[in-house]
Amino acid sequence: MDFKFKISNLKFLFLIFIFCLPVFSAEPNDSKEPNDVNGYVPATGDIWKDAKVFPKVAWDDAKMTYFNGDNLLLLLLAGGGSIALHDSGADDKAAEHFDKHRSFPKDLDNFTDLAGNPGTHFAITGIWYAVASSKKDDLNVQRSWIMMRALAVTGATTLALKGIVNNHTPNGFNYAWPSGHTASSFTVASVLDEFYGPKIGIPAYLGAGFVGYRMMDSGDHWASDVLFGGVLGYVVGHSIAGKYKLDLGGFKVRPLVSELHDGPSAGIVLAKDF
Known about the structure:
The protein is mainly alpha-helical and 274 residues long. The protein has a two-stranded antiparallel ribbon. A hairpin with a 2-residue loop joins strand 1 (252-260) and strand 2 (263-271). It has helices at 3-25, 47-66, 69-87, 90-100, 106-115, 118-134, 138-165, 180-196, 198-217, 223-241; strands at residues 252-260, 263-271. The relative contact order is 0.15. The chain is globular. The longest helix is centred in the middle third of the chain and has 28 residues, at 138-165. It has a single domain (57-271), classed as Vanadium-containing Chloroperoxidase, domain 1 (Up-down Bundle), CATH 1.20.144.
């Protein structure tokens, strides 16, 4: 077996361990039930029943998410920000900066690409669901079910927007906007934040921001792709998981991409309405 292939397998197993850690640490009879917006609670061990109802539930999730006025406003603002970044030339400046100042070594770049890949998120969530089901852990069956729904809505939305816009990435590939890696990573972070609070939510947001930064650093995406992808994932994740809102002294966590004096940056910002 090729050595690089072995290393890749180890990375994937490490991601599975980190992502599924809450499954093994949480008590099955945790009193905090996740909020199932559709009224359907998955039956432990009944995978086929869950799979059959999944498309309808995910469709209802999408309607609930995108027919919400606050969500639409946030997405429209993010879309406007994306257009502003593109039309003002900020996208080009950011891409030029990253092209001249690559900061990710090859191994870290590959690992971050794998960690932020939507396929990785779907695979690990499936493992989470299977492990929880085998343990008869109703709480984590429901949590993994909700995570899968949020990822499905984010993924479908991202693919639809990519097909409609079909612009090129800085390194010349098709279907740039929005960044699927960033959107999926912020979805994961938002759902984990809803379920486990700041102790897991904050590191997850930082990890999602790191993925977004990598997508620009590698030339795989424009800053505008990352901006909208982050907001999309945030909106979908919180809307679908939506019971335990992270509130730090009245402040909420939101994704951020900005242009600083020494170059572009990506991360999170604390926001509060007055």
